């Protein structure tokens, strides 16, 4: 079976691209390597932000870092870049990091820098979905493994 490509938040693959220079490695991703070729993306770094960088949160339609700097343009550019990668490589699915202002799928921080969460999507998630990409989070990996196993056994 030819593997499809899938976008994956680079920090979930162990890349130290988080705001604090760390990663969010998720070992369960290895089980998906049988079905997919991973295409790592970090929209914040690609949108021009450095590692490390100040943490930032979504406030209404903007992204503001903890020092009050408006970094919306970087987040927007990163989201546009991610869609262009998906289009160039004909990618239809992504696994992104929950709670991030770029990559969050169901939850994001509340914009108050107090650790609180609200329902919402990151900038990149929103844009990928707008262009028809199916976006899952790391919490959906077990369900995706089951889905792929079921497809395989139905062949
Ligand atoms: S932008 Fe996405 S890939 Fe980059 S560090 Fe944040 S959550 Fe990870």
Instruction: Determine the strand fraction and express it as a percent band.
Output: 15-25%
Structural class category: alpha/beta
Distance between the termini: 10 Å
Which consecutive residue ranges, at least 5 long each, have pLDDT under 50? Answer: none
Adjacency order of strands in the biggest sheet: 2-1-5-8
Largest sheet, strands/sense/barrel? 4 strands, parallel
Counting DSSP E segments of at least 2 residues, the number of strands comes to 8
List keywords for this structure.
4 helices; alpha/beta; 155 residues; two-stranded antiparallel sheet; 8 strands; four-stranded parallel β-sheet; 28% helix; 22% strand; binds iron/sulfur cluster
Layout of helices and strands, plus pairs?
Layout: E1 4-9, E2 36-41, H1 43-46, E3 56-59, E4 62-65, H2 72-88, E5 93-96, E6 107-109, E7 117-119, H3 123-130, E8 134-137, H4 141-154
Parallel strand pairs: 1-2, 1-5, 5-8
Antiparallel strand pairs: 3-4, 6-7
Helix pairs in contact: 2-3
The structure holds iron/sulfur cluster.
